[in-house]
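Troubleshooting: if your tokenizer reports a length mismatch, compare your output against this known-good record of 136 residues.
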Amino acid sequence: MWKSLASLFVAQIALLPQSDDLSPVLSRLQNLRPTLDRIRQISGTAGASIGVIHDGHVIYKDNLRYRDVAAEIAPDSQTLYGLGSLTKSLTAIGIANLVHEGALSWDTPVKDILPDFHHKDPCLTNLTTVIDLLAH
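Known-good structure output:
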């Protein structure tokens, strides 16, 4: 379910406008609410919180249904969620965007990005690439 939510949001915000006018993006995000709530219902998830950050600023946030069903308490920005493996797919999406922009390649050595990356085996330190880490 979470991968579906992540994919849906990435599809909507992957091409943020270069201008300061984010109203088309905000409109698309707001229009997604019924779909997100339907995914939440189908998956049996009690509640969800969604936030989108652009250039270091929160441009959109929404909270769906309940964090505590019995007490009917809505989630908020402080609600904690178990994300499971969602972080892996979001990391891969972020790296894919950097590859697409030419900032790095799938074969970029991790040590070139993270100078403090060291393994006890020097061969692994020197040869581990971005794709290696994502293929675990």
